[in-house]
Design goal:
The chain is an alpha/beta fold. Helix content is 39%, strand content 11%. The chain has helices at 8-11, 25-38, 52-65, 89-95, 99-104, 117-134, 146-155; strands at 2-3, 45-48, 69-72, 140-144, 171-173, 178-180. The longest helix has 18 residues, at 117-134.
């Protein structure tokens, strides 16, 4: 699973959630460079979130790697951040002091008007399971969002590590369960 390239709102440090900002030129160019790094991996195809920044990243990767986009999956989209959409962290903290921290620590369900953490996690985990059933025995390159990848890590009780744009995590799903995965060369 790869986090999409840099978007216009990432540059502005705004929460995107389900909003649909485009990739920046820099984000598109970095995606081309990522494709060169991924070229040795024998992917069977690409799956993507339906949001523009992920679809644009997937399209660039598909072109550069000579792959097809097999599915555009709305359930791989980022968390709905509700009232936080288009706000910066300082703006959120001024309006809802302590809420971001409470959500991170599991003492608040989610952003106002947005998606609860457990609902978001369950949606993303189910989407990956569904893709594993649709494309059995396939090595897929998923293009999604930082929150979606963190949701998978939370589900697996993995340590939270920073994930920049175009950062990736490897997962394996055998049609029954999701596991972290380290590919062999």
């Amino acid at each position: 699973m790869v986090r999409h390239g840099e978007s216009e709102w990432k540059v502005a440090r705004r929460y995107s959630g389900w909003a649909d900002p485009q990739l920046t030129y820099s984000g598109a160019q970095a995606t081309v460079r990522l494709a060169r790094e991924l070229a040795p991996v024998a992917f069977d195809g690409i799956v993507s979130s339906d949001l523009a920044r992920a679809r644009q990243t997937a399209a660039i990767l598909a072109k550069e790697l000579g792959l097809r986009i097999l599915a555009v999956e709305p359930a791989l989209r980022e968390r709905d951040v509700g009232s936080w959409t288009e706000l910066t962290k300082p703006e959120v903290d001024a309006r809802w002091p302590g809420l971001r921290s409470a959500i991170r620590h599991g003492t608040a369900p989610g952003p106002p008007g947005g998606e609860a953490t457990d609902v978001f996690r369950d949606r993303v985990v189910a989407a990956v399971g569904g893709l594993a059933l649709r494309f059995p025995r396939s090595t897929l390159l998923g293009v999604t969002h930082g929150g979606a990848i963190r949701a998978l890590e939370r589900h697996l009780k993995l340590k939270r590590n920073p994930l920049e744009n175009l950062g990736a995590r490897w997962f394996k799903h055998d049609g029954v369960s999701l596991q972290p995965w380290i590919p062999t060369p």
